[in-house]
Amino acid sequence: MTDIINVPLNKLTVWSGNVRKIRNKDGIDALAASIKAHGLQQNLVVRKDGKKFAVVAGGRRLKALQQLAKTGDLQATFPVPCRITAADNATELSLAENVMREDMHPADQFEAFRSLTDDGMPAADIAARFGCSEAHVQKLLKLARVSPSIIKAYRDGDLTLECVMAFAVTDDHEAQERVLADYDPERNDARDIRDALTENDIAATDKRVKFVTLNGYEKAGGNLKRDLFSDDDNGVYIEDAALLDSLVTEKLEKKAKPVRAEGWKWIEVMPEFGYAQSSAYRRIYPEPVPLTEDEQQRFDSLQAEYTALNDAWYASDAGEAPERLDELEKLIADIEDRDGVWTPEQLAIAGTVVSLDHAGKVKIERGFVKPEDMPKQSKKAKVSGVPGDADTAAVEAETPGLSAALVESLTAHRSAALAATLLDAPDKGLATIVYALVLDTFDQGHATALELSGKTQPLNLVEGSTAFQRLERARESWGQRIPGTPDDLWNWCLEQDQSVLLDLLTFCAACMVNAVQRKTDRPDCPRLDHASKLSVAVKLDMKAWFTPTAEGYFSRISKPQILDALTDARKQPVAPAWDKLKKAELAALAEREIAGTGWLPDILR
């Protein structure tokens, strides 16, 4: 029989012979809401089962109807249109119902929702009538409003839904289509799309925003732009850049107020003050505080004891240095590393910069001198290092699997770590400098890892890292120990022990290390080859200097590379569910899972 009859809802039951054994409960609420709003659009297929009728096809519709009955939206005897089928072909019909059905393409769904809003239906009403949240409807409408070219590429299978979500970060169709024209699924992903479309936007993760806070910006009347498909501050953008800069400057000015009373020639307030900005100035440091007579006697006594004990140890067959040597070094360092004082002469020519560090915290740096304010007798002196350009090669280096920017970032960490490690190996520092000087002296024309030019290498790519902090502490310490004028520095150098000069020479060498691999470096670059040899000589262990994070590494590689890293680090296959995570979620998971394992990318091993 194939007749359509109305069967009371309480006379319908689930057929035990249904071919679908695993039932997905998701979507029943939405289906119930749709039936309530639009009625039952498709009849059920049933077979006689005693005094009741078993539902052969339409089990989810039955569940939705029963739910509406429980909530009082339908009577228990609500007449349900059903088509009765013979018992002998029930299994075939159940199979046809489940196998032959084709799900709606997501693009069809969000374009249909857009048509409803175009006809005047509010998003809240759409959500209620289709049993979903208003936020979900807003996301679908956002996707429906991307460029038609992107919708077509999605329908054709050239873009994933994740990529369409990334395009929706902006409403500018021209910008979307420009990025789409350059999109290559072999080398790009959703993150690259989002980055390209927001490269000129100010994210909530910007240090300026962290400084004034989102709440402070909004209280001042600032508007925000939100990426509906990001769950954290990475998807929030500042729309009023002028207001943000005004708030930052105002807040920094308050922080600068007590510094102005110190007597500097000038005070500059600037949110961004890294290596690029500081290179316009020379840097001087406070003068060491003269020791009192008693302090000088104690210092001389400690130095004499140290020299005698050290000489005796070198002359003996003992393998380990006496513990007293370490104690003496600390006592001597405590005297040498005292805070210096700024002299009136220094205050008369130098200034202070109040800025923000990479984390959005206030940074106050003193002792910057404009070139025109430097005393004439100091012009020949190298008061402080300035960033220099790394030498490059004509052939682009190839590092499969990693972008040139990521390679440069990772090797910048390696270069800084190598420099920081070299601080503890003055013998290797001396050898490195002699090696570089001999090559230049005898015109051998072979590049080394040392930029032996008196110019320190920039650390902007690793600002805030452990190696960066170690080098900056050393810079501050030496800056306070050495005199501020060339003549005084020369006399000071003549008076120092060889060990002091060797340590200072090593620091200078560390500041000139350049092991960064840039896009234009060829694979057999002699400078990078020497950097590898220097790393072996100082026993560089990158595990002590670098930990891969979601932001610094995993979010900048592909999902397959993240999964490979997890497998490599954990020495076991990854959970199947991980492959279904969004890239941002997978990157965060990788950071947690790999933490503490000591795993490093191949390029840093």
Written account of the structure:
- With 605 residues, this protein is an alpha/beta fold.
- It folds into five domains: 4-99, Conserved hypothetical protein from pyrococcus furiosus pfu- 392566-001, ParB domain (Alpha-Beta Complex), CATH 3.90.1530.30; 106-238, Arc Repressor Mutant, subunit A (Orthogonal Bundle); 293-336; 385-544, no CATH class; 554-604, no CATH class.
- The chain has 25 helices and twelve strands.
- A hairpin with a 2-residue loop joins β3 (44-49) and β4 (52-57).
- α15 runs antiparallel to α16 (323-336).
- The protein starts with a strand and ends in an 11-residue tail after the last helix.
Search tags:
single chain; 605 residues; alpha/beta; Conserved hypothetical protein from pyrococcus furiosus pfu- 392566-001, ParB domain; Arc Repressor Mutant, subunit A; 5 domains; four-stranded mixed β-sheet; 25 helices; 9% strand
